[in-house]
Amino acid sequence: MESSQRPPWSAVGVPIGTAGALPAGPPFGTEVAPAALRARRLPERLGARDRGNLAVRVVGHERDAGTGIVGWPSVRDMIGTVRADVGATLAGGAARPLLLGGCCALVMGAVSGARDALGRVAVVSVDGHIDVYDGRTSPTGEAADMPVGALRGLGSVGLLEAMGASPGRPVVAEGDAIVVGARDAEEVLDVGDLPERLGVDVHHRDEVVADPRGTGSRVAANLAGRAVPYWVHLDVDVLDVAVFPATDYLLPGGLDLDQLADLLRPLVVDPLAVGFSVGCYNPGKDPAGACGDALADLLVDVLGSGG
Q1: Other Cβ atoms within 10 Å of 198 Cβ, number
Q2: Which pLDDT value is given to residue 306?
Q3: How far is CA 174 from the centre of its chain?
Q4: What angle, 0 to 180 degrees and rounded to 10, lies between the N-to-C axes of helices 257-269 and 212-225?
Q5: Local structure of residue 26 (DSSP, 8 states)
Q6: Which residues of the chain carry a pLDDT beneath 70?
């Protein structure tokens, strides 16, 4: 299928943060990112239908005794809502989901929804972190630490059930969870060989910087060779702190904007790329708006030119 024949984007906001909000408190942090991207006319510039925000919010500051997750059961409810929305959009066949996050916990709902609609799917997570903690091992208890591990079947029964999975029946198969751009040395030491044991394919930051477009092309070609549809997620903390300080988990040594665009283009242009999400932009750390402007421009460039 030529890119010009592909269904248009259908944009929806997922206004969540997983640090735990007060139930009656005002939106803050990554919760307001969908509004900030709309203020830059992102859906309109992509020719996307804008369906507003999903009715989701992660609330509460305590780790749940059963799952170890901060904000449970609102995290469960968010996963279910995102899952249903993505599944319905893809099942209709007339549009591709574009999720405006929010934090990257939304990936668990997005990919499980794609699986519901399409069967076997993969996930390509462009992220500064590998995100294979669970509710027991996560240093924070935030669901944002867990998406890749959870999609591979790691986590509490309640979390897996929210995705329509179980320890023996994960959302994505071995080799179908791919992380690109990870560089958190402390996390690498902490998780050890867990990514390998889970069957997660990790392309670290140095590989990407050496050849951004080549890395994206190799990942896309690998999935094309196996005819696996895939979801692409962008966590903006893959960018260097000097380039994009408006995120909550700051790391030096990340990508610059041109490298990120070169990496993403071959991933989103492939017809097997069935949906896209962006997360972890915190407008509260962007008083002048430069990061939001740069992010919106990058997404228009990448998603609007053949994506």
Answers
A1: 19
A2: 63
A3: 19
A4: 20
A5: P
A6: 1-4, 306-307
- Answer whether 0.85 is exceeded by the pTM: yes
Cβ 219 vs Cβ 184: under 8 Å: no
pLDDT for 307 equals: 59
Per-residue confidence (pLDDT) for residue 249, from 0 to 100? 87
* Backbone φ and ψ of 47, nearest 5°: 65, 25
Residue 3 confidence (pLDDT):
43
Angle at 147 between CA 221 and CA 21, to 5 degrees: 140
Query: Tokens 């408006």 correspond to what residue?
Result: 246
Q: CA–CA separation, 230 vs 246, rounded Å?
A: 27
Cα dihedral 232, 235, 237, 242 in deg (nearest 10) = 80
Do 86 and 20 form a contact (C-beta atoms < 8 A)? Answer: no
How many angstroms separate the CA atoms of 266 and 217, rounded? 5
Name the E strands within 33-188: 49-53, 96-101, 122-126, 177-182
